Amino acid sequence: xxxxxxxxxxxxxxxxxxxxxxxxxxxxxxxxxxxxxxxxxxxxxxxxxxxxxxxxxxxxxxxxxxxxxxxxxxxxxxxxxxxxxxxxxxxxxxxxxxxxxxxxxxxxxxxxxxxxxxxxxxxxxxxxxxxxxxxxxxxxxxxxxxxxxxxxxxxxxxxxxxxxxxxxxxxxxxxxxxxxxxxxxxxxxxxxxxxxxxxxxxxxxxxxxxxxxxxxxxxxxxxxxxxxxxxxxxxxxxxxxxxxxxxxxxxxxxxxxxxxxxxxxxxxxxxxxxxxxxxxxxxxxxxxxxxxxxxxxxxxxxxxxxxxxxxxxxxxxxxxxxxxxxxxxxxxxxxxxxxxxxxxxxxxxxxxxxxxxxxxxxxxxxxxxxxxxxxxxxxxxxxxxxxx
Length: 388
Ligand code: TRH
Description:
Layout: E1 2-4, E2 10-15, H1 22-35, E3 41-46, H2 49-55, E4 66-69, E5 72-76, E6 89-93, H3 100-108, E7 114-118, H4 126-130, E8 134-136, E9 143-147, H5 164-183, E10 193-197, H6 205-214, E11 219-224, H7 229-235, E12 246-249, E13 252-257, H8 262-271, E14 274-278, H9 281-288, E15 293-296, H10 305-316, H11 322-335, H12 341-367, H13 372-381, E16 382-384
Parallel strand pairs: 2-3, 2-6, 3-5, 6-7, 7-9, 10-11, 10-14, 11-13, 14-15
Antiparallel strand pairs: 1-16, 4-5, 8-9, 12-13
Helix pairs in contact: 5-8, 6-7, 6-12, 11-12
């Protein structure tokens, strides 16, 4: 029997930074997307303030216990955990463990909060079957539900704040050229292929850089400061590259950019002809940029990430013609260590115009589905009594 809840007004998200920025990137976006409705109170608990401050510079100037930035109350998740009234919806991100005292406080509420575990994004088939499933706590009379983001109507969808695609379209139509002129190296020819590069350590870059350097078409890499930078420097025979520096080698140039806030990173993705992205959040944002992309997936034990990569390629490439799909697959596999990046590049480069059309269609098709916040609201408003 269905149990209809009123729309929840107070929300809190718990985020533990495991490695890199991705988990916090997703949680911050979710918190901000929820907070766009002024009727909602949104609190984000984060255990790594330094990582948060890189994505959200406003966090750096807050007092010790935290404070509000862009409508979201940012709080330090520390031990011992402070006694606070739990929100109506409590989201634990990526199976992080809620503080035991907070769980007790949740159980003690007359109307227990809705408890959601936000999972990692995957295009794998099993996701739809697990989305929304419940799991009762053995003692506390609470039940959490598993929320799986995804790319199909039977999953939890993708984060897409309102106005995102309209802002992208304005930028790409009217602001891109000026942005590139201000951000990239001076004097890049008009036919430059602009590539953003955000990746983990990338052994495949050396051969690709060599190929680009020898090529006919100018290629310019825009590289935010991060883990791939040592490989970029090595590709130019330099011991290191600093933010603001430009390196050149034949037809290839690279400019190192500062790590910006999330909005600044979106503009980089919107500006480039090809986006090399990684993890989860930049991967999704590159899809909203509606430009060709290649995904450096986060490596898992026993190469399990290749299943995830293939599942996405199957879905994303379902309506691509075989040559373009093959080009995409070969380049993505090589970029993830299964193949030769330089050998895969020419066919991939030739397919870029078709991949650009396809990227636009994919973004438009995904945007017709309800976004992650809409689906979260739906799940939290219309919950099944047996689970809640
Ligand atoms: O940092 P990541 O590698 O994150 C990964 C994944 O989330 C993965 O699923 C997780 O298990 C692992 O971390 C531990 O990549 P991701 O997800 O793209 O996150 C990077 C965030 O940084 C994203 O929110 C975009 C943001 N960003 C900026 O805000 N400014 C920048 O200049 C750049 C380059 C990125």
